[in-house]
Write a structure and sequence with these properties.
It is a single chain. By secondary structure, the chain is an alpha/beta fold. It contains ten helices and 17 strands. Strands 7-1-2-6-3-5-4-8-9-10 form a ten-stranded mixed beta sheet, with helices on both faces. A seven-stranded mixed beta sheet has the order 12-17-16-11-15-13-14. The chain is globular, with a radius of gyration of 20 Å. The structure holds threonylcarbamoyladenylate and magnesium ion. The site of magnesium ion (MG) has 4 residues, from loops. The site of magnesium ion has 4 residues, from loops.
Length: 344
């Protein structure tokens, strides 16, 4: 596996039907030629990804993209945020293999905002199907080293473009005429789209029931870090009598705390066991650091990590959304000590 590919070499490998991880502004993608069914099949195999979870097709420019995805008024208006951390689901009119879209007539389209990715995509000059470059269910990689650790022995090369700027996956939008539904929250936020004059509704996500999800990648359990992560909520924030608390089996020996702002960790956290998502309470910085910190945690000898939900606004919503799926459960705190865990 080559780790030092140039964009041109990465494109050549993709044109030969190989799997190449490449950087984007959000997270690293695992790219294959979208019109090569065998290459697409290999993406699913490499990730251990269920075949019912469709892939995003990446392009270098809107002209080529709209040759594959059907243009509408709203799609055209939204295309002004490309290149950018946005995926738009559009009818593909049979131009994209059903193995990419998991049998759907709709396909997700995106132009990533990363110079090396754009150079590679221009050289391929065809749609590149790419999920995040991690094993299915795990957190997305934001550096070439994280990709190598997850998938190094299963792919043909990595185009190293440094650490991803945004740090969480793109916002995924479904269009219904003039209305926009947010299927996956990201750094292009609900607030931003509303302020730009779009008619936005949030999808009712978090369905853990077996009914068919609109977007199968929005599973309840996802983005799991390597040690258990718990949300911390104050008892007074909950209506506790109506909730059953489970006692923890054994207390953690060396727990850590992920902080947003210069807040104190609870008493049960050893003083030095603290990592900052953002010391200055910047929600975009917290997103940028999220998966990188999941990786840093792994190198500590922490046996669990605790985090308070971020403010539920702007990119904070997108980070909370990842955290809800990444967390094992919710730890309830009273007087800075854990009094129990919420039943899942
Ligand atoms: O930022 C990103 O979007 C990254 C980079 C590499 O572009 N890609 C990424 O891909 O996060 P992936 O496969 O890990 O997540 C794609 C999400 C999944 O939740 C998937 O279910 C949804 O988009 N999706 C893709 N195609 C879809 C479709 N046709 N209909 C509904 N949901 C779709
Ligand atoms: Mg993914």
């Amino acid at each position: 596996m080559r780790k030092d590919l140039t964009p041109r070499e990465a494109a050549d490998l993709i044109l030969k039907g190989k799997l190449v991880a490449f950087p984007t502004e959000t997270v690293y993608g695992l790219g294959a030629h979208a019109l090569n069914e065998n290459a697409v099949k290999n993406i699913y195999l490499a990730k251990g990804r269920p075949a019912n979870n469709p892939l995003i097709c990446h392009f270098s420019d809107t002209k080529t993209l709209f040759q594959y995805g059907k243009k509408s008024n709203t799609a055209e208006k939204l295309s002004r945020y490309w290149p950018g951390p946005l995926s738009i689901i559009l009818p593909h009119e049979g131009k994209i293999p059903l193995s990419v879209t998991a049998g759907s007539e709709l396909c997700a389209f995106r132009i990533p905002d990363h110079p090396a990715a754009l150079e590679m995509l221009r050289a391929v000059n065809s749609p590149v199907a790419a999920p995040s470059a991690n094993l299915s269910g795990k957190r997305s990689p934001v550096t070439a080293e994280m990709v190598e650790e997850d998938l190094g022995d299963r792919i043909d090369g990595i185009l190293d473009g440094g650490r991803c700027i945004v740090g969480i996956e793109s916002t995924v939008l479904l269009l219904e005429n003039e209305r926009i539904q947010i299927l996956r929250k990201g750094s292009i936020t609900e607030e931003f789209l509303i302020s730009e004059g779009f008619d936005v509704s949030l999808s009712s996500e978090f369905k853990s029931s077996p009914e068919k999800l609109l977007s199968p990648g929005l599973d309840r359990i996802h983005y799991r870090p390597s040690i258990p992560l718990y949300f911390l909520l104050e008892e007074k924030e909950l209506e506790i009598d109506s909730i059953n608390l489970k006692k923890s089996a054994a207390p953690f020996k060396n727990p850590g705390f992920l902080a947003f702002g210069k807040t104190d960790a609870p008493n049960f956290i050893p003083g030095e066991n603290i990592l900052y998502l953002s010391e200055s309470e910047n929600l975009d910085e917290a997103a940028h650091n999220l998966y990188f910190i999941f990786e840093t945690m792994k190198r500590k000898s922490w046996d669990a990590a605790f985090i308070r939900p971020l403010p539920e606004k702007e990119t904070g919503r997108a980070v909370n959304d990842r955290l809800k799926r990444a967390c094992t459960s919710v730890a309830v705190v009273k007087n800075r000590e854990i009094i129990g865990y919420l039943e899942n």
